[in-house]
Structure prediction request, 341 residues.
Amino acid sequence: MVVARRGAKAGTVRGGIAARGPGNDSSGVVAKSAVIGAGAMGHGIGEVLARAYPEVWLYDPDAATLERAVALIRESVERLERHGLIDAQAAREAPTRVHTTTDLDLAVAGAGFVIEAAPEDLPTKQELFADLDRLAPADAVLATNSSSFTLAEVTKQVREPRLTLVVGSHFFLPAQIVPLVEVSRGAATGDEAFEATYALWERCGKAPIRVRHDVSGYVANRLQRALMREALAQLAEGSASAEDIDRAVRFGFGLRFLVRGPLAQRDVAGLGLASRIQTNPDDRERLDAGRRYLLDLAAAGHLGLAAGRGLLDWHGADPEEIRRTGDEALARAAALLFASE
Ligand SMILES: NC(=O)c1ccc[n+]([C@@H]2O[C@H](COP(=O)([O-])OP(=O)(O)OC[C@H]3O[C@@H](n4cnc5c(N)ncnc54)[C@H](O)[C@@H]3O)[C@@H](O)[C@H]2O)c1
Prediction:
């Protein structure tokens, strides 16, 4: 990996994946891609792209973040190879394909695909997209990894005809391990850009889904939020300890979800029972109490792992060690998931 090095092709390669422009081969390989923001998500997304594509640029205004990104990518490819998620060649080559820079112009010059993973702040993202619209090649697809803003909000300052080339591409932490990528489209997104982005992530070994509408939270975050609302409600009413509520998910239906999603699971069990279960009229009140429980903890400074306490007690835990052991376990689980497909 090279820090702030001008790639031989930078500024000259054309490579819009939607346009299948010069610089792409016939299967739509994007010659150069760029990831904007190299924090928790960005380095993982860069690594994913580098498994399949020859030249990936990571941009971040903070040089120390870029250095850490490079170290994390090296650590990660070794782990993924050890768990059989990538082969030895990909593990060897991926890090050499990643270039880093604090110069946005350099990062996106000649890129066919650009994905933004900057902080979740709307004005920052809107300004960034105005810059990307101006700096990136006219046929480049621009994607956002925003968790909560719609594509319409993030691309408010993007002008026609680029609007046909904007897509959502939403990853899950850690992006280099969790297979899902939610590919979404806005009102003006063209079919070609949408499908080319889906194919791009498939080529990287990810498991994309198509989100047909531009909605906040895509599909998976809205599902997660529904579960979180109920988990907090149960915690607030004292049904069980935080540890036991988590065990109920991990050792109960969470395991089944590795094999079958909730809708297929419902069909397998039969719809008869589900149709007899009544909605609890007190649900609104319970869910509000759960939300208040979380807000009270946050207001008291109990913000989770980094603060030593949140919904659970993390006193004495080392966040870096928790990240590393979590990634290790997730890589093992991902290998099992792919083996059972
Ligand atoms: N963390 C998650 O679990 C998660 C999951 C899915 C999606 N996301 C989304 O991904 C995006 C990035 O989240 P993160 O957790 O990686 O945040 P982060 O804070 O770890 O990383 C953001 C990076 O962007 C850089 N940055 C600051 N200003 C910038 C600018 N103007 N242009 C480009 N980069 C800039 C920062 O230096 C930082 O390194 C957010 O939109 C977030 O909602 C996060």
About this structure: The beta strands are 2-3, 33-36, 56-59, 98-101, 113-116, 141-144, 166-170, 180-185, 207-211. The pocket of nicotinamide-adenine-dinucleotide is lined by residues 36-42, 60-62, 65, 117-120, 124, 128, 145-147, 170-173 (CB under 6 Å).
